[in-house]
Amino acid sequence: MKNLTCFLLVIAxxxxxxxxADHHKKEKSNLKLPTSWKEYLSxxxxxxxxGVWSYTGKTTDIWxxxxxxxxxxxxxxxxxxxxxxxxxxxxxxxTNNGTILSTGSGMETWDAKRKKxxxxxxGFDGGKLYTGPSExxxxxxxxxxxxxxxxxxxxxxxxxxxxxxxxxxxxxxTNVRVKDxxxxxxxxFTRKPRKKKTEK
Length: 200
Description:
- There is one protein chain.
- This protein is of the alpha+beta class.
- The protein has two domains: 1-30; 33-191, Beta Barrel (Lipocalin).
- It is built from two helices and ten strands; from the N terminus they run ααββββββββββ.
- The protein has a ten-stranded antiparallel beta barrel with strand order 1-2-3-4-5-6-7-8-9-10.
- β8 (155-167) and β9 form a beta hairpin.
- The longest helix has 29 residues, at 2-30.
């Protein structure tokens, strides 16, 4: 009886493992590389990615220039450029007492020669300059995945960033160090309501 119970537990565990693997495979297969800037923009709009997003929580050690364990707020803005050829991103991270932890900006655009979406990013973490390119790994109507390479204080490391639209007003972001997969963090942004225009 004991052997039968162990056997059934092994079978159940194997089934769960396969289920998780199939789910991950399905999620990954839904992501694809767009064939044009127009297709990419269509995906971003269906994600409802544009707007001002906010998050409050504690910092982790995912980023080299930001210390771990600090209570902070994070505001992220995504908008179209005036000519429609780029997506502009900017962020500010600051502690509860107003100290700036990180500020920076980035630009997503279509590389016609390589027929891929790339992004350039730069800013300051803890007062230290960081720079880094990102390459789109894949996108769907509800998620996108990027390979980001950051350089700060002479150190370079890679991070896989996955963004998911949980609902029209919530958007999660998971960051994972490529060479240290156990070093990962997930935060969930909430859309900030648009400010109402005041009448003159």
